[in-house]
Description:
metalloaminopeptidase activity; Leucine_aapep/pepB; aminopeptidase; Leucine Aminopeptidase, subunit E, domain 1; nine-stranded mixed β-sheet; alpha/beta; Probable cytosol aminopeptidase; Aminopeptidase; metal-binding
Amino acid sequence: MTxxxxxxxxxxxxxxxxxVDAIVIGVHSVNGDGAGGDGGSLLLASGAESIVAAFDGxxxxxxxxxxxxxxxxxxxxxxxxxxxxxxxxxxxxxxxEPTGAAPPPETLRRASGASVRALAGTGxxxxxxxxxxxxxxxxxxxxxAEGALLGAYRFTGYKTKPQPGRRAPVSAVVVHVPDAAEAAxxxxxxxxxxxxxxxxxxxxxxxxxPNELRPPRFADAVAEAGRAAGLDxxxxxxxxxxxxxxxxxxxxxxxxxxPPRLVRLSYTPAGAGRHVALVxxxxxxxxxxxxxxxxxxxxxxxxxxxxxAAVTATMLAVAALRPAVAVTAYVPMAENMASxxxxxxxxxxxxxxxxxxxxLNTDAEGRMILGDAMALACENGCDYLFETSTLTGGQVVALxxxxxxxxxxxxxxxxxxxxxxxxxEPAWPMPLPEDVRKGMDSDVADISQVNAGMDRAGHMxxxxxxxxxxxSDDVSWxxxxxxxxxxxxxxxxxxxxxxxxxxxxxxxxxxxxxxxAAG
Length: 519
């Protein structure tokens, strides 16, 4: 069951007269004495004009006295004492005032999320943030709406007693716009609600304890959600996987008493000219197998199915948004355990496409299950293949915890980067050097699972090079490594809660829209 998100609506009433529990306005930081008017170091953003007037020019000065600096994401709350209808005004920092433009959409998205999270315990919150009145208006409104809904997310958890001082998330959000009846604005709000539900579902699955979401149970949950959304669903159990020659998925699942699965979800609109395949890694828990991981932090390996969760939730959003392109998701699931039946270093595994892989590191299990699923996607036919996975620690070393690594067809990798920039999920294209492939030559099989000498140089690239072996030459593909961005272990920030982030659901949806628009 997905964590609830607030209701979302539009309003064009004077912000100072809105009958809400709190209203959010934007504030910019400025430099120089007196540059911010009465506050000296602050400048209220557009959208707050009537509220500034109601405070008779004292608002920025009061906010400054309360410590507001206008730093991005900083939230300062002030009791209005009857000055306006709402009892609380919250000023959220937007950073320096942009020159000749509204703040970038991602700045608005993070500000909206931070403010709604800070107002937990409040019933209805209105957002009166700066929105441009030009061609950038839809993107800005989408950002504000998405940020608000995602910032309110909270995983319900498993505590048996109420937590003292824990306040309920905001239950309703209204966004102030010039015209609340405008069809384009209403469409953006409706889309934001669908996308937020998909991201929340991804987060919920990622945050679920691994004993509650082993492969058969995860497969059942995915199948149930897919059927409820109207998607075509097929689940391959261990016997069907064996008959189908899915050696990689079976090998990884050998060590667990919970057998592996492969779930296919399909959306096929009438007259669709293009076909997009999505593949997501579904390792419900990763001990590393016999190449066991260090104990410290291993519990976070419950998130090793974030790619599968994102791909599945993307399909649920696709079913609701109904783009003019066919989309099929392939979701391989396994639990990587060490036991008397587990696969071993030195094993040779025959994959779905017939290639034989020498296993050198059982902790490089994700590429094994993905190779099978990607081969099947290509067999069934697709024009574009997007695969996403928490594949390598090398991604975090190279690009950090917010920027995904992208490998594959160069033109498609550039499109992934552009989509990520558009939605606030940055990604960076990486190469697939031939010397990395040469280092994976095996003496006994077609390819080694990792570098044959166990050299970890270019570790992230090794994963991409391996996956390339399972993509047909006529298919444009992109591998999106989200080892860092898929899980946030720090304190909440912007519209990210602690735990699963939902990356890259919004990127995948933007890419699907891009393919549909191209015809």
